[in-house]
Specification:
The protein is of the alpha+beta class. 34% of the residues lie in helices and 17% in strands.
Length: 159
């Protein structure tokens, strides 16, 4: 069994992918022509305005077209029950559909904001006086000698 996740091929960036995206289960012994007809029927029933003709459609996955007249196993090889592929339907002659972006817009905005904040922090650290740490007790090069000789005094009490 192969689980096919058919995604929308329209180029508009509307968030209506849930309306045209669906799962379809089939076997690897299915002919590609029958698979395309089934997917087109379901796609047409899910989308009101856009209707596709099964004879004018190509099925794509992994940047390669399913060849009509062959079996699904010719493209996918021998698959086990857990195989899931993402496919797209396109009109013949249009070529392969565009690849989906690796990072969606919300993630890209979050990354940009994170790196901008980090850059601002780095600017603040670079602008700070580089010798600020020298006034601290842990940075005193003679601190061990003073502590062994008892010269480190705590204010207000005797050690």
């Amino acid at each position: 069994m192969v689980l096919i996740h058919l995604k929308s091929t329209n180029n508009s960036n509307n968030n209506n992918d849930n309306d045209t995206s669906f799962m379809y289960e089939t076997t690897t012994a299915t002919k590609v022509d029958e698979l395309i007809k089934s997917l087109v029927e379901i796609h047409n029933s899910k989308t009101a305005g856009e209707s596709l003709n099964a004879d004018d459609v190509c099925l794509w996955t992994c940047g390669k077209e399913f060849v009509r007249g062959k079996l699904v196993s010719d493209r996918l090889g021998s698959c086990n029950e857990k195989t899931k592929i993402i496919c797209k339907l396109t009109v013949k002659g249009e070529g392969a559909p565009m690849r989906e972006p690796i990072v969606n817009e919300a993630e890209r905005n979050a990354m940009t904001e994170f790196y901008f904040k980090r850059q601002e922090e780095m600017k603040k650290l670079a602008a700070a006086d580089e010798d600020d740490y020298l006034n601290s007790q842990w940075a005193d090069p003679k601190g061990m000698k003073k502590s062994l000789q008892g010269l480190n005094t705590c204010q207000g009490s005797w050690v």
